[in-house]
Amino acid sequence: MQAALLTALRRFEIRQVPDPILVNHTDVLIRVATVGVCGSDIHYFTGGRIGSQVVQFPFIIGHEASGVVEAAGSSVTRVRPGQRIAIDPARSCGHCDQCRAGRENTCRNLLFLGCPGQLSGCLCEYVVLDERCCHPIEDGMTFEQATLSEPLAIALYAVERSRPTAEAKVAILGMGPIGMSVLHALRATTQGHIFVTDQIDARLKHAQTLCPTWCGNPRLQDIAAEIREREPLLLDIVYECSGSEEAIVQSASLLKPGGRLVLIGIPEADSVGFPVHELRRNEISITNIRRQANCTANAIAALQRGRINLDALVTHRFGLTETQEAFELVANYRDGVMKAMISVS
Predict the structure, then answer these.
(1) Which single residue of 37, 84, 119, 278 has CA 20 to 30 Å from 44?
(2) Is 207 a member of any domain?
(3) How far apart are CA 101 and CA 52, in angstroms?
(4) Please, which residues have CB within 8 angstroms of residue 143's CB and are 6 or more apart in sequence?
(5) Dihedral angle computed from the Cα positions of residues 239, 242, 247 and 252, in that order, rounded to the nearest 10 degrees
């Protein structure tokens, strides 16, 4: 099969590699249709690592995907050949203490698609995954929409864990695909004030289509002062979606006593400083979001039923042989890119 292999920092090569095969009775062979370029993929592309997860070149990355079932193991009941599916990239063991506690996203034996040392990714024509990773989609759902269920599932999980009230006052820092997904998720569940920030004006313009209370660019404005003027008692929740240390630190100045900081973005640095006394005195809760625990089905349902529409997130489209171009575009924030999609089939 044809695959886009990451062979060095900032370098993809299109090569022929062996087709994957079914090994376990619950394995499913999937013909990949569409792959979304995620911010975590960009970390591997530009830096070769996320924390201790270090790429050993060559390696196939990519985890936001959809496709068609080509073949299934003898024990598979969830899907059938010919069925169109969205892919949940996380494969948990189902047996450890975390899985038994309903925390499959922190499974002690978790394997994740396109993660170094775990599973090869989906920037290729075929992948083999356990049937639990395969979610059938309706005929009316496009492959791009199915692929977008992955970032939306993360957003739904973040909102579920942070438990905003109907009138909560919140901010979203970083309006890339994850920040936009959080904004969509909040718009579907709350009526409170939502403040959004980003350093890229094109992304703020995109966010304005959902009518947030206020948009700001931290390169041009004092975000804390602007929000304090509008909300003197400050905010209930801040969703940090950029991974920027500056934004993480800024979050503390936006939260009221008893507020909650929700960390979703992935920092490039291995450690980040916090204004610990400000957090301590105001009893700020910090919630880390690890992927999309048990929210994939809900994300698919929200998209299929039209409760959330992420179609406008897709701003650029490429073929598999154009993977290098797609990643350069996203890594350098060119041409107003929000989400780049790679069509494999």
Answers:
(1) 84
(2) yes
(3) 26
(4) 33, 34, 66, 67, 84
(5) 20
Indicate the number of domains in the chain: 2
CB atoms within 10 A of CB 248: 22
CATH number, residue 337: 3.90.180.10
Q: Based on the domain organization, do 314 and 246 belong to the same domain?
A: no
* 229 contacts 203 by C-beta, under 8 angstroms: no
pLDDT of residue 189: 85
Three-class SS of residue 65?
strand
Q: 22 Cβ partners below 8 Å, 6+ apart?
A: 28, 29, 71, 72, 73, 128
CA distance 73 to 77: 9
So what's the pLDDT on residue 275? 87
Instruction: State the pLDDT at residue 274.
Output: 85
Q: Give me the DSSP letters along 108-170.
A: TT-EEBTBTTTB--SSBSEEEEEGGGEEE--TTS-HHHHHHHHHHHHHHHHHHHH---TT--E
**Do 303 and 149 contact (CB within 8 A), yes or no?**
yes
Please give the helix or strand (H or E) that residue 37 lies within, else none: none
Q: What is the CA radius of gyration of the chain?
A: 20
CA 136 to chain centre: 20
Residue pLDDT, tens place only, 159-195 = 999 999 999 999 999 999 999 999 999 998 888 899 9
Model confidence, pTM: 0.96
pLDDT at 165: 93
| 62-88 pLDDT tens trace | 999 999 999 999 999 999 999 999 999
297-331, pLDDT tens digit by residue?
A: 999 999 999 999 999 999 999 999 999 999 999 99
Its domain, for residue 279, covers 152-288
Asked, for residue 256, whether it belongs to a domain, the answer is yes
Burial (0-12, 13-18, 19+ Cβ within 10 Å), 51: exposed
Signed CA dihedral, 22, 26, 27, 30: sign only: positive
